[in-house]
Design brief:
Length: 326
């Protein structure tokens, strides 16, 4: 029904028939899937290695970019792709930053039928990973443990970030692995309203566009039919997600807020255990990673548009750098 509503709306806007809209929508969807799959099959950039992590539930794969300047343990950034992607789709967003800062970046792969159109089990979303109850939090935790054990990652500077479905999993990781992560950053992700607080405060950055049409700022089901069909629960409104973390981190008083504008920030810095909650409200951003290219075909099909008022990678790394676990 949701898909049909989207198709009918597209037909009305375009001034065409529902049948034509159905055909056009399906064609655009297949084009986008093909382009995402092509990106997922692209050759690995120099210095990025494919790795496998054996686990009790089955081996999992990830990409590793070790940009350390020496053999000492370095800050680790775990970057979780959005639904329908894989680790390769996050590499362009973090490779330059990793090399410039001398950090280790790791790009895990979610669960997908062909290893490319992958998703994460975030509880209320998404797709095959959710349907099979994939232990993706366990995977991320085991990956962190392996990189710390091998002397690659500094256990006091482990950071997790994610986009969309990867951002949803980032919230889960922050709650479940509060003793392992120094800070997290969520871009265009969501929570579902049934989460328990973490055992310890966690510094959290949330960045979300008010015009996000895939993970709506106001919450609820996605307005994009095939995304809504991948949900088991409605998304929480973004401001309720921020409020969850303000309460969970024991933040005192109100936030330090920037003036209203295109990029507005609210920063709760007086939180338990040295935590911080930083919220970026982007007035005209759609569902995108600010500062990055939008996949070909996504602009027409999903109304995703480039956004350069802020760079999400720069903002996340600046946030990470000021948080180190004691």
């Amino acid at each position: 029904m949701r898909t049909l509503c989207v198709v009918l709306a597209a037909a009305i806007v375009a001034g065409g028939s529902p049948v034509a809209a159905q055909s056009g929508r399906e064609g655009l969807r297949e084009q986008l899937r093909a382009r995402i799959a092509a990106a997922g099959n692209a050759p690995l950039p120099a210095g990025v290695d494919q790795r496998t992590l054996p686990l009790a539930g089955g081996a999992r794969t990830y990409l590793l970019l070790d940009a350390r300047r020496d053999k000492s343990p370095a800050p680790l950034v775990v970057a979780l792709h959005g639904g329908g992607g894989n680790g390769k789709t996050m590499v362009p967003r973090w490779a330059d930053k990793a090399r410039a800062e001398g950090i280790v970046a790791v790009f895990p792969d979610g669960i997908g039928r062909d290893g490319r159109m992958a998703t994460w089990n975030a509880g209320g979303c998404c797709g095959q990973a959710m349907a099979t109850k994939s232990d993706d939090v366990g995977f991320v935790g085991a990956l962190i443990d392996e990189l710390v054990r091998s002397g690659v990652a500094d256990p006091k500077r482990v950071y997790v970030t994610g986009m969309s479905n990867g951002g949803m999993l980032t919230h889960k990781v922050a709650i479940a692995l509060s003793g392992k992560v120094a800070a997290v950053a969520v871009v265009a992700g969501a929570m579902f309203g049934d989460e328990a607080p973490p055992a310890a405060p966690v510094p959290v950055m949330v960045m979300h566009g008010v015009k996000d049409q895939i993970v709506p700022y106001a919450g609820g089901p996605s307005s994009v039919g095939f995304v809504a069909s991948a949900q088991a629960r409605d998304f929480q409104p973004v401001e309720k997600t921020v409020a969850f973390w303000v309460k969970a981190d024991g933040c005192a008083g109100g936030p330090k807020a920037s003036p209203a504008g295109e990029v507005q920030t609210q920063d709760w810095a007086d939180c338990g255990g040295g935590a911080e909650v930083l919220f970026y409200r982007l007035a005209s951003a759609t569902h995108t990673w600010p500062g990055a290219e939008v996949p070909a075909g996504a602009t027409r099909m999903l109304e995703m548009t480039p956004y350069d008022a802020i760079d999400a990678t720069d903002a996340a790394w600046a946030f990470f750098k000021r948080h180190v676990r004691p």
